[in-house]
Amino acid sequence: MTTTTTSYHHGNLRQELMALAEKHLITGGIAELSLRALAREIGVSQTAPYRHFKDKNALLAALATEGFRRFFEFCLPSEREPRADISLLYFGLGYVQFAKTHTEMFHLMFGPVLQPRNDYPELFAAGREAIYKVRAGVERGYKTGVLRELDDVASMAHTVWAAVHGVATLMLDHGDTYGYHRDLDLQAEKSLRMMIAGLCTDPSEISKLPDALTPYPPENA
Description:
Layout lengths: L2 H7 L3 H15 L7 H8 L13 H19 L1 H5 L3 H18 L1 H8 L10 H24 L8 H21 L1 H4 L5 H14 L24
Helix pairs in contact: 2-3, 2-4, 4-7, 4-8, 6-7, 6-8, 6-9, 6-11, 8-9, 9-11
């Protein structure tokens, strides 16, 4: 079979490469990954992948950018919630759940492999969009009087993001000590609620610590 025929058989080679790279990412084999090795697995010439990606990291950056797209879609229910404090809670629950169920992708999206980020414009833009979504939630909280204006919007948004990311990272990397003998998911929600309560003008509702995990996506989403 010629290279042209093989490439045609696999349709969109770019997507084929990303799908196979994600498979390796999930199974933990990304360290030894190379574009040439992927080409051999797919059955195309070893130079064919370079028409789409200049090197392995360019492929991983495209994969991480796709991860952000999925993450944004997963977080849509939090953006639709009208109350700013509950919206932030849903964002945190979605963030933690995404990290838990897509751990390898989460580490690629936020980890040190693809540095500096501004070498990958699409990935850099996706990362900025993530903080803009948090910022939009904070702005809504300020306008509706739900959140205390402790600092400017950007500073508050970064504080929220740092707290949420910290909870997710502790769950993934230090779950045995973070959860201790408690339900890990429930502990994560309690942490998120206590953090958000400290930002609210009236924390009486958000600070009620549940006995069972709040479902995400919410049932009415």
